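To: structure desk
From: M.T.
Subject: fold request, one chain
Message: Could you run this one when you get a chance? Sequence is below, nothing fancy, just the single chain.
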Amino acid sequence: AVIEERIEELKDIFGTNSVFDKAGFVNDCTKAADAVVGVKDLTLIVAVVIIILMTVLIERSFISKERSQIALMKALGFKSRSVINIHILRFMLICGLSLAAAAALSIPMTKLIMDPIFSIMGATNGISYANDTLGTFLVLPAVIFGAVILASFVTSLYTKTISASDTAAIE
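Reply: Done. C-alpha cells follow.
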C-alpha cells in the first residue's frame, strides 16, 4: 500500500504515468507478462488433460483388477453408490496429499531452480518473486482436484456393470 501511494505521489510530482514498481518496470521493458500468463494457462490445460487421462487409466485398471472384490462387496449388500464413493475417496485422498506436497515444495523449489538462472543473467543481489498466491494455492489446486474427482466419478460408474453374480468368476 505504501509503494502504491509513493508511485501516485511520484506521478503527480513528475506529471507522468511512467512510474513503476519492480514488476511493472520489468513488464514495461520486456512485455513478457502476457506471454507468461498465456504459457501458464496452456500448461494448466495440458496438465488437466493429462491428469484426466491418467485418472481414467488408473481407475479402469483398479476396477478390472478388483472386479471380484467389487462383486463380493455387492453380494454382501454394498450398494453401487458405496462402491463408487470408495473409489472416488481413494483418488481424493491421493490428490489432496499430492497437492499439499506440491504447495509445500513450490516456493523452496522456485528459489532453488530460478536463483541460479537469474544469477547467470547478472541478478545477484536478492531476487524477489511476485507470487499470485490466490491463483497458485487456491485456484489451480481446485481445478486439478475437481478434474480428478470428475474423472474418477465418471470412470467409477463402470462398477455398476459388475453384479453380485460375478462372484462365481472369482479365481
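Reply (cont.): The chain has a mean pLDDT of 89. Let me know if you need anything else for the meeting.
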